[in-house]
Amino acid sequence: MQPTSLYALVLMVALALLGGCRTAPVYNVSQVPVMTTKKSYSMEDIEKAIMRAGASLGWQIQLIDTGHMLGTLYIRSHMAQVDITYSPRTYSIRYKNSSNLDYDGSKIHSNYNGWIQNLDHAIKRELMAM
After folding, report:
1. Residue 77 CB contacts under 8 Å (≥ 6 apart), including other chains
2. Are the beta carbons of 100 and 78 closer than 8 angstroms?
3. What are the tens digits of pLDDT across the range 44-87?
4. Distance separating alpha carbons of residues 70 and 48, to the nearest angstrom
């Protein structure tokens, strides 16, 4: 094999491997306990904490029904949408929809997972601050 052919082959393999690094399994947050310093709090308190957490990160949070919100994040040409369900004891964040994030049914652009982890941490902070 000629050196230029070998170089081209190595380059193609490296690019293929790097391309796969951009996607990862979809990260969902399931049944996280609601932790707060308050002994008594309402569903409305939890709603407000989730809305504050989302707004602090640029998420648009829409109340669908008691115990269910829809979160939408727009970053440049990308959109991520999640269902946020909650009760007095737990909350969950689950993938709903996206655009320009290479979602294939089980994997998505790795930035999405970071956005969800950031939202989860912000919700935890807001709940502890109430």
Report:
1. 99, 100
2. yes
3. 999 999 999 999 999 999 999 999 999 999 999 999 999 999 99
4. 14
Enumerate domains of the chain plus CATH numbers.
Answer: 25-129 (3.30.310.80)
> E-strand spans in 10-67?
23-25, 29-33, 60-65
Rounded distance between C-alpha atoms, residue 110 and residue 20, angstroms: 10
Whether this model's pTM surpasses 0.85: no
Could you give the C-alpha distances from 71 to 43, 112, 118, in angstroms and in order? 17, 13, 13
Phi, psi of 102 (to 5 degrees): 55, 35
